[in-house]
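Before relying on records like the one below, remember that each one covers exactly one chain. Contacts with other chains, cofactors or solvent are not represented anywhere in the record.
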Amino acid sequence: MSDLETLKAEIKKLSAKATQAKMDLHDLSEELPINWTSILSVAQKAHDAFAELERKREDLKSLEKV
C-alpha cells in the first residue's frame, strides 16, 4: 500500500472517529443538565478528533501536490 493510500485509509478512520465524537457531544447536549460535569471531557475529545482529522487532510493535500 502506498503512502497516499495509507493516509487516505487513516483519514477515513479519523473521519468516523470525529463523527462519533460529534454525535457524543450532540447527545450530551440533549441530556443537559444531566451529566453536565462531562462537558469538558466530551468536548475535548471532539476537538482533538477534528484537529487530528484536519492535520491529516493537510498532509494528504501536501502529498498529492508532489
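The chain has one domain: 3-65.
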